[in-house]
Amino acid sequence: MGIEPSLSRLSLNQITTDLWSLQEAVEGCVRAEIPWISIWRHKIQEIGLAESKRIVQDSGLKVSSICRGGMFPAATASEREKRLDDNKRAVEEAAELGTDTLVLVCGPAPDRDIATARKWVEEGIEKLVPFAKSHGVKLGIEPLHPMYAADRSVIVTLGQANQMAQNYAPTEVGVVVDVFHVWWDPELYEQIKQASGRILGFHVSDWVVPMPDMFKGRGMMGDGVIEIRRIREAAEAAGYTGPIEVEIINQAIWDRPGDDVLKEIKTSYVEHV
Amino acid sequence: MGIEPSLSRLSLNQITTDLWSLQEAVEGCVRAEIPWISIWRHKIQEIGLAESKRIVQDSGLKVSSICRGGMFPAATASEREKRLDDNKRAVEEAAELGTDTLVLVCGPAPDRDIATARKWVEEGIEKLVPFAKSHGVKLGIEPLHPMYAADRSVIVTLGQANQMAQNYAPTEVGVVVDVFHVWWDPELYEQIKQASGRILGFHVSDWVVPMPDMFKGRGMMGDGVIEIRRIREAAEAAGYTGPIEVEIINQAIWDRPGDDVLKEIKTSYVEHV
C-alpha cells in the first residue's frame, strides 16, 4: 500500500449526510476539520442561493464541486431546452458558491434508443460549454456505473467520458472519477492515463457484497472490494491533486449521527484512500 | 423493427423455470413446442447424469448449452485445481448431454485484486481447452454485467471476452452474448462484429426499471429498455444463427405456473427478440 492522502484534500460530498441541511453539513465539517464540501442542489433549493452562499462563506470551507448538472436526454426538443436552462442555473450556482467544477450526471434515455440519448448528451454539453466558460465553471462528466444506464446516465465508462471531453479544452470540459462507478472497468488504468490533465474530481466510497440496495447501497471506504488507493494513485499520476470527495449514498449511514459518520470518514480516508 | 426470429431457434434456459425439475422442464418444452433447452448443472445433480441424459434423449429436445463452468479465481493453487476439475466434469456433462457448448461464468476475485483474478481466468481457460476439445465441447465465455464484478465474474465486457477468446481457434473458445449483461456497453456493436464466427450463444431477457432485485430481477423481453432485436440482428450479421436462449432470473416469474411462463415467452420472443 502507498502513502495516505493529505487530510487537506478531504471533502464531504453532501449526499453522504443527506439528512443534514446545508447549515448542519457545513457546521459538521468545521467541527470535524474537514476543509472541503461538495454541495447538492436540492440542499441549495431548501434555503436559496444567497443564504447558501452566506453560510459557506462564513464557514471558511472551500467548495469542491456542485452536484449536479446533466440530465440532457429528453424526448422533445423543448424539454431538452428546459434541461439546458436548468444546467445554466447550476453553472450560476457553482460560480456563486465559489467552485469551478460542475459535476454532470448525464441522464438516461427517454426510451430504448441509448445511442440517440448519447448524442443528446453531446449536444447538451456543446450548448452548455460557452455559458459555463463565461462563468469560469468547468464541466466534469462523471461516468456512472453501468447498472445506472437505464435510469441515471447513458455515460457509463471513463472511456466514453474521455472521448466527449476531448472535444474541448481541459479548462472547459473534463471528467470526474468516482471509484464506485469505474472500479470494474478492464480499461480503467489506461483511461485514467488518457484523462491526464482533465480529471476535475475524485470521489470515493466502496462496493460492498452483498449490496443492500442498488441506489442507497454504497459502502464506507475499506468495507468493500475496491482498490481505492491504487485508483487514487493512478489519478495522481495523471495529474490530479485536488480535493477527494467522500460520496456515500447509503440509508444506514444517513440514519447515523452525522458527527459519527464524519469521524469514521476521516479514519477510513487515512487508512483506505 | 426487423423480422422476428424463427421459433425453431427458441431455447428455454432452465433457470427461467427454476422451480421445475429437469423432467418437468423438458415436458414443459415439449408441450409448448419449444425445440431447445439449456440445462443447469444443479438440476443434473438432483437426478444424476445418466437419468438426465435419458430424459433429454427421450424428449427429442436439443440441448443448446450447459450452464455453467467457470469460477476460476481462487486464493490458492490447490483450490484453483479443484475448480479446474469441476470444469472438467462440466465438459463431460455437456458432451454426454449432446451439446457442444459449455457456458463459462468466470467467477469473482477472492480478494480486492481484480487484475490477478483476471489472469487466473485466462490460466483456467488455457488449462481447460485441451480437455474440452477432446470432448468436442467449445467454451463460451459469457461476460456478465459489471454489477456482478464483485461476486460473480471479473469478465464484464464483450471486449474482454473477445480478447481472451482470440487466443484460440473458434472451434475451441468463443463468447456468449446475453443482452442483459451487455446492452449498456458503448462498444457493444463494434465488439459483436469483432466476435464474428465466435458467438456460441445468444441469451435474452430484459432490463426493467426499477429492478426488483440485483440478481433475481430480470424482466420478460419487451418489459424493459433493451433493444433486443437490434442486438440479435447484430449477432446474426456476425454469423450467429444458432439457438436463442431465454434466460430470466426472476423470483416473480419462478412463482408463476411454468406453462404460463413458457406461453408468454413464445409471445414475447416473436414480438421483441
Short recap of the structure:
The structure is a homodimer of 273-residue chains. Chain A has 273 residues and is α/β, with parallel strands linked by helices.
Description:
2 copies of one chain form a homodimer. The first copy, chain A, has 273 residues and is an alpha/beta fold. Helix content of chain A is 43%, strand content 15%. The radius of gyration of chain A is 17 Å and the shape is globular.
Present the secondary structure layout.
The structure is a homodimer of 273-residue chains.
Chain A: E1 10-13, H1 22-32, E2 36-40, H2 41-47, H3 49-59, E3 62-70, H4 77-96, E4 101-105, H5 114-134, E5 138-141, H6 158-165, E6 173-178, H7 179-182, H8 188-194, E7 199-204, H9 228-237, E8 244-246, H10 251-254, H11 258-272
Parallel strand pairs in A: 1-2, 1-8, 2-3, 3-4, 4-5, 5-6, 6-7, 7-8
Helix pairs in contact in A: 1-3, 1-11, 4-5
List keywords for this structure.
TIM Barrel; alpha/beta; eight-stranded parallel beta barrel; globular; homodimer
Name of the level-1 CATH class of chain A: Alpha Beta
β-sheet strand percentage of chain A: 15-25%
Give the mean pLDDT of chain A.
97
Largest sheet of chain A: 8 strands, parallel, barrel
Intertermini distance of chain A:
10 Å
Q: How many helices of chain A does DSSP assign?
A: 11
Structural class of chain A: alpha/beta
The low-pLDDT segments of chain A are none
Q: Using CB atoms under 8 Å apart, which protein chain pair has the greatest interface?
A: A-B, 29 and 29 residues
CATH topology category name of chain A:
TIM Barrel
The tally of beta strands of chain A, per DSSP, is: 8
How many domains make up the coordinates of chain A? 1
